[in-house]
Design brief:
This protein is of the alpha/beta class. The chain has a 5-stranded mixed beta sheet. Belongs to the phosducin family. This is Phosducin like 2. Pfam families: Phosducin.
Length: 212
């Protein structure tokens, strides 16, 4: 029993080590322990990578047109990039920036950037704003152009989260489209109106005099 506890204590030494210490202590573990040590090392490595990425992408950054290729098109292949082309005089653009600023904190593994549209595309029409492009490996994987496609003037942050998740840019915990309830209510209302019209039409037909 004492021997088992001693063995367990020895194996768990690695849990207090950082990556450098694990590397230096490899010779101190026997073959049986090395599997557990290696699994733990990989876990620590993934945690370190996640932390590095979080520190790198944890904010909504402003870029200009000259940085577009470097920051967006040529971003690392394993990184999703969400870029918002905006104009500060358009309220909907400000709302999208506000929501993206919140989402970037929840999804730091994705790269969120924004750019004033004139610095990237000349003579871009206001009716096309806000514009959100989603990139991966230099290719556009999703696009939302204009107020309607971006979710409307009453856009909620959860709705934008769902849109980005649908194209694969982020992994959301949301189980269904937050706008689904509103859409269901609209569908129900339309069906009720149609049914009401049908009923009125049938009633009118019944009340028509039978002229021969």
């Amino acid at each position: 029993m004492v021997l088992c506890l001693q063995k367990e204590a020895e194996v768990k030494l690695y849990e207090r080590m950082n990556l450098k210490e694990l590397k230096e202590a490899e010779d101190d573990f026997d073959e049986a322990d090395m599997k557990a040590v290696e699994m733990y090392r990989q876990q620590r490595l993934q945690e370190w990578k996640h932390l590095q990425r979080r520190q790198k992408y944890g904010e909504l950054r402003e870029i200009c047109g000259e940085q577009y290729v470097k920051e967006v098109t040529n971003a690392p292949k394993d990184v999703w990039v969400i870029i918002h082309l905006y104009r500060s005089s358009i309220p909907m653009c400000l709302l999208v920036n506000q929501h993206l600023g919140l989402l970037v904190k929840s999804f730091p593994e994705a790269k969120f950037v924004k750019a004033i549209v004139n610095s990237c595309i000349q003579n871009y029409h206001d009716r096309c704003l806000p514009t959100i492009f989603v990139y991966k490996t230099g290719q556009i994987k999703g696009r939302f152009i204009g107020v309607a496609e971006c979710g409307g003037i009453n856009l909620e942050v959860e709705e934008l989260e769902w849109k980005l998740a649908e194209v694969g840019a982020i992994k959301t915990d949301l189980e269904e489209n937050p706008k689904k309830d509103i859409m269901d209510m609209m569908t129900f209302s339309v069906q009720n109106i149609s049914a009401h019209k049908d009923t009125n039409t049938k009633s009118s037909d019944v009340m028509k005099p039978n002229i021969t």
